[in-house]
């Protein structure tokens, strides 16, 4: 089977960011499938570029995956307007870049952005093959709920496009049950919507292995209790609330928080830490995904927080799976599948959102309970092995692809 995927922010484990498409793509190839990915050349986390090529697009073989890198002049910008222009630019150029590829058996668009579905749908019409829309997030629901976009005309247009793409897709892949339920509530047939969650690469993301030298990088002594945060530093992840919680722990010299990542809020957060005089909070720049396990092996638990909103229950971020695989119990502040998983398996702690003192008390209690922590750590790794390995997920993905292609050919 030849699978063609449109993914505007494709990265491998040699860069920072979500690697779902890469992990699935290389495993599909190992199973005998051919995989072509059409991606923008801008890196989401750093704003850098995959190459300095000035061509509109170029082709490269990446770990047996055929990748077509589309040049986006302003794709790495953090400014909303320029980022939206990058989304629009990608539509015609990615379609043209995909045309020379051998005819695929199925075409997938993995969002966000929502506009990624347009070139995929157009090519599926041109090639007369099924179109699958994969939803990593819910646009425009989430950006509207967080008031990121307020222009009413733009919001109406986005909702029209969402409905149009959902109805034209042969199948929809939701990354969480919450996303699936939301899509069905919009009038989409339940048998059209599959749930295939993210996962972790269980071998490299293991509690045992090389460790990053945090003492030289941050000054945190090896005997410290370390809470880790990995990912984008944006206000929607409620990190200002986490800072308030750490402020209550300023006298606990043995408890530290280390944030590994970048984002628009990083400068402000660093200023806030300096203003509060918090010596227990530290920042590290993002590293390639392959280096994240060496960081997490120094941590006793992982922080997973989001700013409260009515859609918080649909979230199941990448870091959740990485924490579990490395045996890091998860401290989270939102209801939904993530809470169900960690509480059901005894692999984490839930703290009500907004109460910084309660967060501090929970962090302190976990740090002062070594036996409880050891059991939670074992439970976290067991949960990852049981449900969240990429080899298991690729089997689910292949089943979905086969079902869609066979139905189309019937």
3D architecture notes:
This protein has 410 residues and is an alpha/beta fold. The chain has 2 domains: 2-199 and 389-409, Glycogen Phosphorylase B (Rossmann fold), CATH 3.40.50; 214-387, Glycogen Phosphorylase B (Rossmann fold), CATH 3.40.50. It contains 15 helices and 14 strands. The strands form 2 sheets. The chain has an 8-stranded mixed sheet with strand order 3-4-2-1-5-6-7-8, sandwiched between helices. The protein has a 6-stranded parallel sheet with strand order 11-10-9-12-13-14, with helices on both faces. The longest helix is centred in the last third of the chain and has 20 residues, at 390-409. The protein is globular. The mean pLDDT is 93.
Note the main attributes of this structure.
single chain, 410 residues, Rossmann fold, 2 domains, 8-stranded mixed beta sheet, 6-stranded parallel beta sheet, globular
Counted up, domains total 2
Q: H/E element string?
A: EHEEEHEHEHHEHEHEHEHEHEHEHEHHH
Under the CATH scheme, which architecture of the largest domain would be assigned? Answer: 3-Layer(aba) Sandwich
CATH H-level homologous superfamily name of the largest domain: Glycogen Phosphorylase B
Question: Percentage of helical residues?
Answer: 40-55%
For the largest beta-sheet, the strand count, sense and barrel status come to: 8 strands, mixed
Number of contiguous helices: 15
Gross morphology is globular
Query: Quick one: how many beta strands?
Result: 14
Mean pLDDT over the residues: 93
| Oligomeric state, counting identical vs distinct chains | single chain
Distance, first to last CA: 16 Å
Rg (CA only): 21 Å
Category from helices, strands and their pairing: alpha/beta
Task: Quote the CATH topology of the largest domain.
Answer: Rossmann fold
Reading off the top of the CATH hierarchy, the class of the largest domain is best stated as Alpha Beta
**Main sheet: strand order:** 3-4-2-1-5-6-7-8
Unreliable spans: none
